[in-house]
Amino acid sequence: MDKEIKNNEASDLTDKLVSINRVAKVVKGGRRFGFAALVVVGDTKGRVGFGTGKAREVPEAIKKATDQAKNKLVRIPLKEGRTIHHDIKGQHGASKVILRTAPPGTGIIAGGPMRAVFETLGVQDVVSKSIGSSSPYNMVRATFNGLKNIESPRSIAARRGLRVSSIFGKKKEQAKQENKDSQKTKPEGKQKEKKIETKNTKVKDDAKNRNKGE
What we know:
Layout: H1 2-12, E1 14-27, E2 30-42, E3 47-55, H2 58-71, E4 74-75, E5 88-92, E6 95-101, E7 108-109, H3 112-121, E8 126-132, H4 136-148, H5 153-160, H6 164-213
Parallel strand pairs: 7-8
Antiparallel strand pairs: 1-2, 2-3, 3-4, 5-6, 6-8
Helix pairs in contact: 3-4
């Protein structure tokens, strides 16, 4: 049963090759060439992971990287299953990453390594910016650093011992109070206008009465 479950999970996962480099190891007889691969794996439903692998042949390096990525899957909370809950920054080494939520229809606005992470994660709308080093290894690690720090309203409510509705209820109450305050200020302005109009009419009536008396 466990093997069947693992096979089903593996079939649902999608992997993307982010980068592959030819590396050389200097030995006594000369150089031994190999390949280093960086792969991102995800189920497009909120789970994603990355892995690296080295081997003499490209397929072996990719296989090692995918196996490592499958063992390091992380669950990321998504808002409505399409974007992140809030803006966040991630950093690794000299790479800095800024991730921002986006409305529906925005799409994935990101570079190559970051785009691979978002596509395998299942994000449909996000705006991101990379600052500093453009190394794919550092960019992927910085992106994961930012994604791991994302918190959903449910997790915040559980940590505070509250309900999710109570957290959003405070914002609604503040909005209602602001609306009430704005409505209170409007009638005062109208009353002032009415007072000014009545004063003007009284002045006009007084002037007419004086003319008639003369």
